[in-house]
## 1
Amino acid sequence: MINMKHMKLLYTGKAKSVYEIDSDTVLMEFRDDLTAGDGAKKDTKSKKGALNAEISAKLLELMEDNGIPTHFIEYQKPNRHVAKKVEILPLEVICRNIATGSLLRRYPFKAGQKLSPPIIEMGYKSDEYHDPMLNDDIALALGAASSREELDEIRQITLKVNRVLKDFLLPRGIILVDFKLEFGYDSSGKLLLADEISPDTCRFWDAGTGEIMDKDRFRQDLGSVVEYYEEVKRRILSQI
Ligand code: TMP
Ligand code: ASP
């Protein structure tokens, strides 16, 4: 087990802290903190960090098994990942299969409307500016991406993540409503899927009952956040 006391803290986000292991590797600590509304609403729920770390480890391994390169190296119980150090692009790449959340506040979609083909949206990662939606010209002018080809590659990988994740979750009784991805470059210049794939960064609905099983339980004050994350973990780890 790595002793974090002697490690340099590289970054503290709203739900994770990142420490340097060496020049190529980091330790990501998944904390119990929950935020919504770009940090405006905050709480701490015991076990949430560990649940997200374990769920995310399994889902990032699933991506690797399907030929999608990620930064993930190893899960360390209860709430840590060893990962490749990457230069994160300031992009929030969102993929939507069903209309809900901020899409309904911004456009006249019907709640629950199926989006086929899925919608991909890119946001500029900034709490101060509330992650404003980008088009390719803005992303390039801001330097958030370096070329149109890079943006196309990110969109293609995101669509593949969507297909793999949807097909994995549905037999486990989970509908993948939408999710957010982040990408980064490792020291050799390879583009990797980074960050996490968890109920904090995805919307999951129970396929039988339609119940919300993700961070919307916190955003909408529905209660039992940890209990639903536990259920997501149970289904994701189940051998079916
Ligand atoms: P939205 O409907 O609020 O735009 O969210 C779309 C998806 O992206 C949803 O699964 C939650 C996720 N998301 C994050 O993980 N972090 C964020 O900062 C935002 C805005 C959304
Ligand atoms: N806006 C993010 C979310 O609701 C969290 C946050 O920014 O505090 O997922």
## 2
Amino acid sequence: MISGRSVPEPVTAVIDTAGGWLPQRLAEVEQGLVEAVDQGGVLAEAATATLSAGGKRMRPMLVLLCAGPEAGPAAVRSGIAVELVHMASLVHDDVLDRAPLRRGHPTVYASAGRELATSLGDQLFSTAFRVLVDGGDSRAVTEISATAVDLARGELLQRQGAFDLGVTEATYLERCGLKTGRLFEAACLLGRTSTHPGDSGAIGLFGHRIGLAFQMLDDVLDMSGPPERTGKARGTDLLDGTVTLPLIIAARSDESLAGLDLRGLDEDSAAGVCDRIEATGALTEVRDRATGLIAEAKAGLVSAGLDLEQRQLLELIADGVVLRYS
Ligand code: FPP
Ligand code: MG
């Protein structure tokens, strides 16, 4: 357990395999997160609820694993900062989506309203930079700043393509690379450079690939459910007008899907569209492609200059991305 949260399978496997340094540093990240969100005022309750609402701490884990056993305060601060940016982006995303649920719990948007949720996202986002500045780490500030710009670009690309069945696979991949792959990439880069300054090579690509696979599998899960597992209704992306890879692929073989009116869907008909998409084999195809990306990510680690144990731990976390969705 990390600070009383239940820890999912892949994370447990990595913690069990790594030496004592990993749980120690993860606990420091968790403590840092608690301190970072605890700023009093009207946002305190929502901030604490958001922090304790779950989350796999996958990004801080990547920071620490890429830093390796000599991970120190710089890696811990980067772990805190990437998780704060991640949390901020989800709180803002839920405002934009008008989402009722996240991880099975009411979103801040649903329970406290648009204004409070927007402010909380802003607070979490700003605090990430304070944590990095407190460590005097201008390199990390620059990386996280560039990453946040990319997240915003990815989100905008998604909004611009909303309800548009003409969204291409290339645009989908660009969008997922920006909104999800980029933060995984930053986590890996910041971890590695905290212990190996100047080494910004292959490890970033590893992060980008597993982030992209993560998002592709998340988009499959949105359609396959079940809701008890995902904490949201099947077809939520369709209802939001978000055109994802399963639909793009399915529409190639099912003409009725190519002409779908996403604005006319309700919860029941969205679930029916998910079934039709699944019947084309598109969910299996996207799962396979994500699995292929994970394999490429792992293969790329061979030339990343890591020691064997570190590489094996990163392979384990990469496998965890797929296992979680199998
Ligand atoms: C969740 O994915 C959302 C993201 C990965 C990115 C959200 C980014 C922003 C709101 C813009 C930038 C914000 C900051 C603070 C820099 P999803 O919408 O695919 O999945 P979900 O809604 O089902 O979780
Ligand atoms: Mg969303």
## 3
Amino acid sequence: MTQIDEKIEPIFAEVLRRNAGEPEFHQAVREVLESLGRVIAKHPDYANDALIERICEPERQIIFRVPWVDDKGQVQINRGFRVQFNSALGPYKGGIRFHPSVNLGIVKFLGFEQTFKNALTGMPIGGGKGGSDFDPRGRSDGEIMRFCQSFMTELYRHIGEYTDVPAGDIGVGGREIGYLFGQYKRLTNRYEAGVLTGKGLVYGGSRARTEATGYGAVYFVERMLATRKLELAGKRVVVSGAGNVAIYTMEKILAFGGKIVACSDSSGYVSDETGIDLGLVKEIKEVRRQRISEYARRKGTGTHYVEGGSIWDVPCDIAMPSATQNEVTGKDARALVKNNVIAVGEGANMPCTPDAVNIFQNAGVLFAPGKAANAGGVATSALEMQQNASRDSWTFARTEERLATIMRDIHDACAETAEEYGAPGDYVLGANIAGFVRVAEAMRAMGVV
Ligand code: GLU
């Protein structure tokens, strides 16, 4: 683990003390603070006025009860969260996650990451995140709708197009955003399209938003490979997950001529030496909402399903972890390095443990951290807000072109910042510093906020 600069160490100690029992939040903060030693060595004034301390403290944290009635008529209770982390650059912006693992620490880690990610996009958006420990698995459409309506019945008073703009994340896709928007509209009697992003195309959504996180991650990796005169074409790629990020990562990799050799879900992974059939994955995951084991059962020859195994054992040139936090451990990283992985691009938020990141970087593997590589999703959300504000609707091509430019700019900002701070090729450092400096500059201009 990299050391934290001795001037910053007490700030981290205070974060640990004040946020006890939140390991993912500690991990996310630590990673950024490790990068800041070089910043204050160059610009000591960034250590003034408790600026770093303020950036580590969310502006507002909301926790609420979400009661709802299931299909059997039983009353169920879940807990809802919205952490409004930082609004220096714009309204709070970030997704909502529905997953049984959600707790305050997870939402804080995501909100903290989101703040720097959003800054990196160059769009006017602050950072926030929300969610619930509600488990959508096995729930009927009616149950999902009633849950979303109850969740919004509290959330609506805290959000707005100029205040806080939620979107999707794990467990929250187009269906859920539709139910949430419908309830917001009823409660406020306003057609405020810009209050949520990831909306359906018929009611103010943006073209390419669904694809944006995955497509963007692939654009980032392609540009990162180009720094070593390499390209995606002909490469073996492993993409973990089979949700929105993974599916559109796979789609873009195929468009660039790469070969997907494995994907997964929380129950196991499937490898396919003939190349994963994305149409079949989409049908199983997006239409039927079934387990990935179904893929091997349907496709048969050449496929292999491993229940509970590690997808990172499958040899590949490029790994794109696109499932969830801490899914790539030190052991997984060692297996990937042993199999000569060239590049790792994080599609999910913080999928590699600190141990894994160190192993990749020490082995000279190109490593793209999530807050840079997966920023295409939220960047396109900002484009959706822009279209809503101007009551316009762009073509797919125009939106994707903006996305590609934004990803190129994020890549270059990370690479140039790493170089400027004496660590060429260190995208973690580059992303953390470039994101931090933008947020810090805005906060400084606003006084003690
Ligand atoms: N949940 C996504 C992320 O982690 C997207 C957020 C958004 O579009 O606001 O960045």
